[in-house]
Every structure is written in C-alpha cells, then in structure tokens.
Specification:
By secondary structure, this protein is of the alpha/beta class. It has four domains: about 90 residues, Non-ribosomal Peptide Synthetase Peptidyl Carrier Protein, Chain A (Orthogonal Bundle); about 270 residues, Rossmann fold (3-Layer(aba) Sandwich); about 110 residues, ANL, C-terminal domain (GMP Synthetase, Chain A, domain 3); about 210 residues, Glycerol-3-phosphate (1)-acyltransferase (3-Layer(aba) Sandwich), CATH 3.40.1130.10. Helix content is about 40%, strand content about 20%. α10 links the parallel β5 and β6. α5 packs across α6. The longest helix has about 50 residues. The termini are far apart.
C-alpha cells in the first residue's frame, strides 16, 4: 500500500516559511558581523534597530530571500519591510521569477533627428522647442516595479509640457510669484518631472530635496530638511500626499512656508499662458550639496550655467541621434537631475529611468534595462559598479547583452582602480567594452560636469610614488617594481570652454605632477551659495572657484587625490584617508563603508593625531583587541606610520551625509568631544620625533616658496639683460647671418644660466642643407628662445604682426629675419600666406608656431594652414618639433617663471604628397598627429564620432 504524505496545513506552511526567513536573516547577520552571535531572532524584530542591517545589507537580504524561496519580490519591499514578518508576507505573496534569458529587446526609442535647441536660453525654452517640433516623441520612459515585474510608462515632450503647464497654473492659484522658491520632495516618478517643469513655467525656482525612504521616517526626515527649507525661503512644499499632514509641522519652523501640496492638487487647474518668461541669467534652481542639513549650502545655478554645462557635456560625449540613456540615479542629485535627465531632454535622447530603490533591491535591473533598450549611455557612482561586479549571480545575468553601452560614466565619488578592473573583467563576457568606462569629475558648483576623458580610450591609471606624494606633493611615476605605489585614476580634461588649475596653499599655480587644490572657472560656474555669503566668500579665489578637492595635472588631464579639508598633516606628511578607509573596510569584522580617518590637533606634538574610527558589531574583548591590532597594522602599512588612536564603535556611529558620504569633520568633532577609546600610547620620543618632523616640514615648505620667488626674480632679470644684449647685437652686427648666430649663442647662454634643464632629442632630423619648414606647438612665452637654441640658423621665424607693434621687439625680430603675418585682417592674412609661399619657393627656410598663439590651459589646438600651403606649393619637407614642459615654466597669465624640465623633440621630416590645397590639408593632419604624439598634451580639436 502506497502512503500518500499529508499536505501541511496553511498555518504549518507559514510557520515553516517564517523559520526559513529568520534563518536567512540570522545567517546574514552572522556574516556581516564577522561570525559573531546574531541577535535573538524574532519575526517582529526591527531589521535596522534590532538586527542592525543597513540599506545595502537589506538589499543583499532580499536577493538571498529570492534565491531561497524561488520568488521575485517587489523592489518596494526594500523600503517598506521593517521586520522579518514583513519579509515573510512579501515572500508568501511573491511571484515566480521570469526567465533571465527571455528578456526581449524593446523597439528602438529614437528617430534620426539630431538637431538641438542651440538658440534656447532657458530650460522652459528647451522644452517648448521640443514640444513644438515633435510633441509625440518619447522624452523618457519610467520603469516601475509591479507584481508581474517591471512596467514602462512613457512620457512625451508634448505630455510633459501640457501637464507642467497645468501645474504652473495651479501654482499661480496658490499665489506663487516669479522668483519665489518651491521645494520639491518627490521620489522618482512622473510627478517629479511634471512638477519640476511646472515650477519653472510658473517662473518660480525649484529646490529638489531627497524624499524619505520609508513612511515611518516621515516626521524625522522632514525635521532634518527644515534647515534647507528655512535657508531657501521655500514658499511651498510639493510632496507625496502621505507626507502632507506631517509636513505641515514644518510651518512653525519655516515662516516662509505657506502650504504643503501634492502634484495632483496643482494639476487640477486648467492650463493658461505662462505669466513669466525667464532670462538666461535668472536662477534656474538651487542644488543643495551633500551634508547641507547642518549648514545649508544651496548652489545657485542659472539657466545659462545649466545650458552651458549640458552643451559642453554633449560635445564631450559626442551625442548621437541613436543614443539611449539608462539611469537609476536619484533626481535630487545633480548627476541624476542634470547629467541624466536635463541633458537627455536637451539633446532629444530618450531616457529610461528607474527608482534608486529598484536598483538597490535588484542591481541587475539596471543592466537588464541597458540590454532591453539597447542603452548606449549610463552613469553611476563607483559603488554601483562594485555591486554589479561582485554581488550578482551569473544566473541573474543569463542572456545579458551590454554591447551597445558605449559610455559608462563613473563619478560622484572616488573612482577605485580595482572596481574598474573587476567590472570590465566580469562583464566582458556579456559584450561590455572596457573602453566604455569613463571616470569623470564634477561638482554641483559647476552644475555637474567639469572634466571628461577622451571617448573610447578607457580608464587611465597613474602609478605614483606614495612617499613622494605624501612628503612633497610630487606625483612622480613609480617604477614597476614599487609594490607600494599609489594608483590614481585619470578623470580627463576640462569640458569645452572650461578651465582648471592646481594651486598651492598660497594660491600660486603649481607645475604639472604637483599636488594642490583644484580650482576651476567657466560658463557653468555658480555665482555662489544662496543666502550664505560666508561660504560664497570661501568658494572664490579671484576669478577661480575652489573645488575643495586635491589633485594634480599630467598631460593636461586631471587626477583627483582627495579632499583638501580631509587631508591629515602629520609631521609634514600629507595623508589621504580614502584609500586606507577602503582597505580597512575590507577587514573581516569591520563594516564596509563605515570607516573614517581624520586628524585632530595635538598641542603636545604641534601636529595632527591620526585617528581611525571603524564600525564593528564585535563585542568580545579578545576579538575586539585582535581587530584593533589588525586595523592598526594595516593603517601603518598604508600610511607609513602607526595611527595614534583606533576607535572601534558600534554600527551607525560614523556620521554620513544624505548621499552616503562620510562626514569626516563631524566625526572628528565627535571624537574631540570625548568619544574615544584607548589606543596606542603617546610616547615621549615618538611625540618629539613627530614635532620635529612637523617643524621641519613647515620649514621645507617655506624654503621652497622662497626659492621659487628667488628663481622667478633671477630668471626675470636674466631675460631682461639677455633682451638688452640681443637688441644691442641686432643694432650693431651688419649681417643677418651674424645676428642669427649671435642670437643662438645668446639664447643658449641665457637658458644655461637660468639652470633650467633642457633635453633635446632628434636634431639629426634637421636636413643638413636645403630649405625646410619647421612646425612646433606653442605653449608658453619661452617657446621662441628655447626653440632658437636648437633651430638651424638658416630658419626665419614667422610671427604674429602684433609683436611688431613694440619698437624694441620689432628691431630685435627683424634683425634676425623674422617674417610677420596678419591674423585678424582676412585680406592681409591671405596676402601674407602668398608671400610666405613665394619665400619658401625661393628656398628660404621658415619656422612656424602653427597654433598661432597659446593659452594657459594645456592641449594642442588646431594648426593654421599657412605653413603647410607654403610647404606644399614649394614642394619642401616639414620638420615637426614637439615642445614639452614650457607651459609649466611660464604659462599665459603667470607673472614669473618657475623651475621645470623642458624637452625639445625633433621628429622625422614629412614631405607633401602634392602641391594643391588638399595636399596641404593632408600634410597638416600628418604633422599635427606627429606633434600630438610627442608633446604630452591632450587633443583639443573636437571630432564628433560617426553614428
């Protein structure tokens, strides 16, 4: 007789499922605690308070529950579930997961239109431009999580404009006037996009705030936002209906706040003509920076700032009509709001957007969307790439195709070289091209973007001597055998129309490969912080803005090394905390991402103490002491000296901003107020050594500044004396050949007397006889004298006519046979080119700075055609010459020269392949490519990729 097993009752099945849920929860707790005993497992225990699981750990918990029960949980479970019982309910109501390999590719979202609203001066004009020309084109597709899986909700340009117009009318009915601020606290939703433009169409200023994660946190969350609401003088708060009742509590602490409303209420008004037309200089919106709840800093961004940044990023990206942007980035953050949404809206590129919570709950949903919609553009902070590279099972990626992804921006937080490598390696099998990875740099004070790398180059990693960088700020390339070298990721060059510089503590620009504060200027730069004059004053350094970050420039590109305010200076050593924090966070027993290093003033040593604050769930004395020793050992290895104190603290001690960045200054203040544990003893000899080292380091820096000043004065006097002697020789020597020979000898003597190291290679490439054209790049005031030292004496310089306006300069240059050309008068310029061609045909050798002039920012510009027309028409070779290092010695706008290595690279001659205009153009491109490859500076000539 066959026994048929009894089917368990529903109650028994639920009890069994509850036990399994608790096992998954407690197993994860033990894992993240490094094997320590988990808290008492109860279905009604609070996941955050009782189990200590933060948002990322809860996202991992959802993934494990899905695997354990074979179900698909709604992404909202991440924010709605507060207890294991909530998770149990979600598991019992879960649906069967869809086959990963069955993900279909959606129909194309784009047409071939590539025209942009270049004449638009404001964001409303951009939207109106698109809504008028193609109202039915999909502007964005909102992906939402449902019981059956993701659902898409398209929003066209016409719909966005119509619905925003109704919101604008509703704001008018509420008494909102142009120029007033309206706070916007909404999740990623159709309401956010409609409300944002509704506020703009009403002439008001939107202030995006991050929404609460859970309804149970509404009151506490809104109270934390009260500082921002008061600072921006918000007249209205637009939020979700559930928050309206609680939000009205804020009216007592925010006198300017008139009402709290939902988008549904505002959109009920009939649309009418906008009462206000904004101007380019008007404020578009206020972007409150991370950590602003304690001391609100609202970045003022005008319409002109935003459109300048969006257009510059579009040029750097090479936007194509077939592009599709896929984003989960939060809309209250500049990278999601401007970089993803407003940028795509301007360029007519479809945006596929999902909630940040959907990504955290199911990271593969971002990759799946890139697959389904053939996404070409997407960006995220470094942690998102790390999650995708290390936390996703292969079973969740079956059938994934990322081959269309052409630019993967990595920004908004320090970029980790190891993450780039792991992501590339993991997803190469899914069609991802490693060259698509693009580390970028930006900040809210520049709208969002500031530096972008060249397209399709892939990440560029610099290995520098760690000790030299800490001791002197020099980013010297480390030899291959240096296992302790610091790896720094290149973030590219400034966006078109923008500039960066690196300055020392005294505000003087430093040479390449010297660390200092990063400053910038350009059309995207903010005018300051809203109602915060003190912070605005600290932001500006003359016409430049201080980013608050440290870095160096090499090859015209930016390498970010840390935050200036986070630097710890101990014994003259500059210690960057980020790398050590990441490494310590990887120790078993330490909570990843919950580690901070900071410096605190120590009167006894006259320098800073280095403190490590790390969260752990360890409670046993022996285990904690062993963990503290491991932290100290690792910190010593990375910093080159032991930390003065290691504090092991319980979870949620390390203070962070709303976007998850560690607030080091706040943690240091917490430590100074008494939150400390016993650490390494402050031994007398050690303190004495530190005090001596600190004093010595200060003395060295002062001596270096004095030496730089002395060199500048000396070099300036040397040039002045050399100029007087050169002028005397030009007036006294009767023959031009004698004057040229004397000028060469004098230039060599001045350069040698200056002490500047000059390396010359390839002079054998100058033909011994016959006419030639010499073409060099132009980077500095010293290029001419330096080039004279190695140039064949038969060459005549070709110079801009403005130099002849100075009588002394005219006598000197004409004395050595310089030919002058007109740059601004077209007719005279053409005639000058004909004269040069005739001279070349007669056998005269000419030397050109083919860029025509130079600017302070690094980079090779377009070459003028004059030199190449002369070479082609006369049939004579061109000798390319690359000058390196002269820009750092004396760049445009710099008052005095500084020390630095100068290199002159003479390249093999190139002959024209014809004598017509087309041959001259081809010759120019060949010569420019040769100079570009040897000058060590980026290419500033834009070449848009083909579609």
């Amino acid at each position: 007789m066959i026994e048929i097993p009894e089917t368990p009752s529903p109650a028994a099945a639920a009890a069994d499922a509850g036990a399994r849920v608790l096992r998954v929860v407690t197993d994860l707790c033990r894992e993240v605690r490094g094997g320590a005993r988990a808290p008492r497992a109860e279905l009604d225990g609070n996941l955050e308070r009782d189990f200590g699981l933060d948002s990322l750990e809860r996202a991992e918990l959802l993934l494990r529950l899905e695997r354990a029960f074979g179900v698909r949980l709604p992404a909202r479970t991440l924010v709605t579930a507060e207890t294991p019982r909530d998770l149990l309910r979600a598991v019992l109501a879960g649906t069967a997961p869809a086959s990963a390999a069955a993900t279909a590719v959606a129909p194309p979202l784009v047409d071939e239109a590539s025209e942009f609203p270049d004449d638009a001066a404001t964001l409303p004009e951009v939207l109106e431009w698109h809504a008028h020309r193609h109202p039915h084109r999909v502007e964005l597709t909102l992906l939402t999580e449902t019981e059956a899986g993701p659902a898409e909700q398209p929003l066209t340009y016409g719909e966005l404009h119509a619905e925003a117009s109704r919101v604008a009318a509703g704001l008018g009915d509420k008494g909102i006037e142009p120029g007033q601020t309206v706070a916007l606290m909404l999740p990623t939703s159709r309401d956010f996009f409609v409300a944002f433009f509704g506020i703009l169409l009403a002439g008001a200023i939107p202030v995006p705030l991050y929404p609460p994660a859970r309804r149970s946190q509404l009151e506490d969350h809104l109270r934390r936002q009260s500082g921002i609401l008061a600072n921006c003088l918000a007249t209205l708060l637009v939020t979700v209906p559930e928050a309206r009742g609680v939000a009205r509590l804020l009216r007592a602490s925010t006198p300017s706040l008139k009402d709290v409303v939902s988008v549904g209420e505002l959109a009920s008004a009939p649309p009418r003509e906008a009462p206000w037309r904004a101007a380019a200089a008007d404020v578009a919106f206020l972007q409150y920076t991370s950590g602003s709840t304690g001391n609100p800093k609202g970045v003022i961004l005008s319409h002109a700032n935003l459109l300048a940044n969006i257009r510059a990023m579009g040029r750097a990206t090479g936007v194509l009509p077939t592009d599709v942007f896929v984003s989960w980035l939060p809309l209250y953050h500049d990278m999601g709001l401007i970089g993803a949404w407003l940028g795509t809206l301007y360029h007519g590129v479809p945006l596929v957007v999902m909630s940040p919570m959907d990504f955290l709950a199911r990271p593969e949903s971002w990759l799946r969307a890139l697959h389904r919609y053939r996404g070409t553009l997407a960006g995220a902070p470094n942690f998102a790439y790390e999650i995708c590279a290390t936390r996703l099972d292969d079973s969740r990626l079956a059938g994934l195709d990322l081959s269309a992804w052409r630019i993967a921006y990595n920004g908004a937080e320090p970029v980790v070289p190891e993450t780039l490598a792991r992501f590339s390696e993991r997803f190469a099998a899914y069609g991802f091209d490693p060259r698509a990875l693009a580390p970028v740099y930006g900040l809210a004070e520049s709208a969002v973007g500031l530096t972008f790398p060249p397209l399709t180059r892939g990440p560029l990693i610099d290995r520098v001597d760690r000790r030299r960088l800490a001791a002197s700020g020099e980013a010297i390339v480390a030899p291959p055998e240096d296992t302790q070298a610091r790896r720094v990721v290149c973030c590219g060059r400034p966006l078109p129309g923008h500039e960066i510089r690196v300055v020392d503590p005294d505000g003087r620009e430093v040479p390449e490969r010297h660390e200092g504060r990063i400053e910038f200027r350009g059309p995207s730069a903010t005018s300051g912080y809203f109602r915060n004059p003190e912070a605005t004053r600290r932001l500006f350094d003359g016409g430049w803005l201080d980013t608050g970050d440290l870095g160096y420039v090499a090859g015209g590109e930016l390498y970010v090394t840390g935050r200036a305010k986070d630097i710890i200076i101990r014994g003259g050593q500059h210690i960057h905390p980020q790398e050590a924090e990441a490494a310590i966070g990887g120790l078993p027993g330490i909570r990843k991402g919950c580690v901070t290093l900071f410096g605190v003033d120590d009167a006894a040593s006259g320098t800073e103490k280095v403190v490590v604050l790390a969260e752990t769930r360890e409670t046993g004395t022996q285990r904690r002491e062993a963990l503290r020793a491991s932290v100290a050992t690792l910190a010593t290895t990375l910093l080159g000296a032991p930390p003065d104190d290691v504090v092991l603290a319980p979870p949620h001690t390390v203070l962070k901003t709303s976007s998850g960045k560690v607030r080091r200054a706040a943690c240091a203040e917490l430590y100074r107020n008494g939150m400390r544990q016993s650490g390494p003893s402050a031994l007398g000899p050690q303190l004495a050594r530190l005090a001596w080292s600190g004093a010595l380091g200060g003395t060295r820096r002062a001596a270096a500044r004095l030496a730089d000043l002395a060199f500048g004065v000396y070099a300036g006097a040397l040039v002045a004396v050399g100029g007087i002697v050169a002028l005397a020789l030009a007036l006294s020597l009767p023959r031009q050949a004698w004057r040229r020979h004397a000028a060469k000898l004098l230039a060599r003597a001045v350069v040698a007397a200056s002490g500047l190291p000059v390396q010359v290679t390839g002079t054998g490439h100058f033909p011994a006889a016959g006419p030639i054209i010499v073409v060099a790049n132009h980077a500095s005031y010293v290029d001419g004298p330096v080039l004279v030292t190695c140039l064949p004496e038969r060459c005549s310089f070709v110079a801009k006519r403005e130099l002849a306006e100075n009588p002394a300069m005219r006598l000197l240059l004409r004395g050595v046979g310089t030919r002058f050309v007109e740059r601004f008068d077209i007719g005279a310029s053409v005639e000058g080119a004909r004269e040069l061609s005739a001279l070349a045909a007669e056998g005269e050798s000419l030397a050109f700075f083919a860029e025509g002039t130079f600017r302070r920012e690094a980079g090779l510009r377009e070459f003028h055609l004059g030199a190449f027309i002369a070479a082609a028409s006369a049939g004579i070779p061109v000798v390319p010459v690359a000058l390196r290092g002269t820009r750092s010695v004396l760049r445009d706008g710099q008052r005095m020269p500084r020390r630095g290595l100068i290199q002159i690279v003479v390249l093999p001659p190139l002959s024209p392949d014809g004598n017509d205009w087309a041959a001259a153009v081809r010759l120019r491109e060949r010569v420019r490519a040769a100079v570009l490859g040897a000058c060590g500076e980026p290419d500033l000539v834009e070449r848009r990729p083909s579609s």
